Structure prediction request, 111 residues.
Amino acid sequence: MFRPKLPTMPQPTGTVTPPAVVIEPTTITPGTPAPPSAPVISASASASVPSRPTVQLTPGTALALVGGGTAVVLVVGAVLVSMLLAVAITAASVAVCAVVLRSLLSSQHRR
Prediction:
């Protein structure tokens, strides 16, 4: 009565057939490796091509970056202020509940 009953695994009902296709390993024959080709850079070409692209800020792009940054700061600030307000409201309500409970319990002891 107190021993758990473990379920038995069901046996397959159909006949099990092995796969018909047998894959045999093949041998790999190494070939002759090709030498890596190095790019040819002349002295005049390397002087005219910069190593990385430069970013040029136009007045419109700078204004867009400032506007985007301001929007991000305002959104993050609004979220943080709303979270602080929620914590303050919760703390005030808990304090009011504590005062009410304290007054109820103290009035019980006076009687």
Remarks:
- The CA atoms of residues 53 and 89 lie 52 Å apart.
- The first helix runs from residue 43 to 48.
- The chain has a mean pLDDT of 81.
- The chain is about 50% helix and 0% strand.
